């Protein structure tokens, strides 16, 4: 189970404010508390104007590295920003993200091929977001051809099957679980990742939907999660699900995470 | 989704105290609040000495029927108590429970055969609780022979596959989900039920394990739940899971239950 802490993202209003005001302590604290909460990667996404994106990324990455050794996920829709931001990182992290749009995947894979960097890859292409499981798995096949071409081990790839909002669906999440299962069947060592909270857009009591979705997605094979690791109920749900799925003998990891205060401690 | 409200049970200390003190208001309130929280059945289990069990059941059932029309689940390990308690009920309810131990199933099925009563049936026999999925499904086959013999429609049966504590398991819940799937494959209209909280005995943060289990059990086919309907997080998880599994178009039931205050309202 891989936790990608999502809180240092300019799309989140409080983080955007800290970025605008150059509030270094706020950013350092987000890196620290996410590490303590069990994050395996600290995602860093500036979400600012292009002209200042790279400077902002450098400022954020430097701050994170002042307080934690947890590797960084360099996160931008602009593949060139990710490539440049890699250079500010003290150790290999997570390239977030590529897709089959344009030449993104070639630019990214050429950079990470002979490194220990891992990479998030989204299942969209120049044709947009595929509507059916079959079409998404076709994009996956094309993507894996690129992974092979650059001699990247599948275990370094985190496939994001693209989680869409539940409220407009008539079939629940059957399409995305079919995609997840299809990916893991073909490449058992690959990771499947996603932003859990996308599922609950426009619904009330979103946390409940997010939690139930995380359980079902993990059951289908998702093993990498982009989320707020301070959300104790969600973190607890992931540890409980690992135990329920038989991946945690005698619940030792579940009990250990509870004792470390990762969940079940706050009201 | 069928909710069997479990709170009127002498095994729960506060309920035991109310029974001992003949606190009628306490019992009536439990019936009322469970109905408001969405219970489809109000379970009534005395858990007292044999000599006063039937009188206690009558007292409890009368109190429940003073305040709600929700059908009653007559609950006792003694099949004769259940048979007698049926007579106190104003309308058909749920016989909880039978198993293949001794002549239980014949006594119970003879009583309910030509009625609208439904029945919980546990997958144990005179040989005890089967250890493997295959052995449990063998008990299920024997049980369904009895269901057929008494001309009871499978849709009136709630099979309890027997949920055991996770903490002593090395394989998680794979055995019980295999049993649930096997039951539903053979009889799509049958119900699968269980006491959700059994799963988390001896673990910390039990509510989290219960919630994750409920999601996975529903995913496998469980559609009847013996639980505390006042547990808003657990109720919310069931509604969210129905939506995620594609059984709730556009999340209308989820949103409706939220608006009715069944979940997401209390902190």
From TrEMBL, chains A, B:
GO terms for molecular function: methionine synthase activity. Residues 1-259 form the Pterin-binding domain. One of its GO terms (biological process) is pteridine-containing compound metabolic process. Signal peptide: none annotated. It holds the Pfam family Pterin_bind. InterPro entries: Dihydropteroate_synth-like_sf (IPR011005), Met_Synthase/Corrinoid (IPR050554), Pterin-binding_dom (IPR000489). One of its GO terms (cellular component) is cytosol. It comes from the Bacteria. Keywords: Methyltransferase, Transferase. The keyword Transferase applies. PANTHER family: METHIONINE SYNTHASE. Belongs to the vitamin-B12 dependent methionine synthase family. This is Methyltetrahydrofolate cobalamin methyltransferase. It comes from Acetobacterium paludosum. The lineage of its organism: Bacteria, Bacillati, Bacillota, Clostridia, Eubacteriales.
């Amino acid at each position: 189970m891989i936790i990608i802490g999502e809180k240092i993202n300019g799309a989140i209003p409080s983080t955007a404010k800290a970025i605008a005001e150059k509030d270094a302590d706020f950013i350092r604290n987000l890196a620290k508390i996410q590490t303590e909460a069990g994050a395996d990667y600290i995602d860093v996404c500036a979400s600012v104007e292009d002209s200042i994106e790279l400077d902002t990324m450098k400022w954020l990455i430097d701050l994170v590295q002042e307080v934690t050794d947890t590797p960084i996920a360099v996160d931008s829709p602009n593949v060139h920003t990710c490539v440049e931001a890699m250079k500010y990182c003290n150790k290999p992290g997570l390239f977030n993200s590529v897709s089959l749009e344009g030449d993104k995947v070639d630019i990214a894979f050429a950079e990470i091929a002979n490194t220990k960097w891992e990479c998030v890859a989204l299942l969209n292409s120049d044709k947009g977001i595929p509507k059916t499981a079959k079409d998404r798995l076709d994009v996956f096949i094309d993507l894996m051809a690129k992974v092979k071409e650059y001699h990247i081990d599948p275990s370094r790839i985190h496939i994001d099957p693209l989680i869409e909002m539940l409220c407009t669906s008539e079939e629940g999440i059957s399409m995305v679980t079919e995609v997840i299962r299809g990916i893991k069947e073909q490449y058992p060592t690959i990771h499947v990742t996603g932003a859990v909270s996308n599922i609950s857009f426009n619904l009330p009591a979103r946390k409940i939907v997010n939690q139930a979705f995380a359980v079902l997605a993990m059951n289908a094979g998702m093993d990498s999660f982009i989320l707020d690791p301070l959300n104790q109920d969600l973190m607890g749900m992931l540890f409980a699900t690992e135990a329920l799925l038989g991946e945690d003998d005698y619940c030792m990891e579940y009990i250990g995470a509870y004792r470390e205060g990762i969940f079940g401690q706050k009201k």
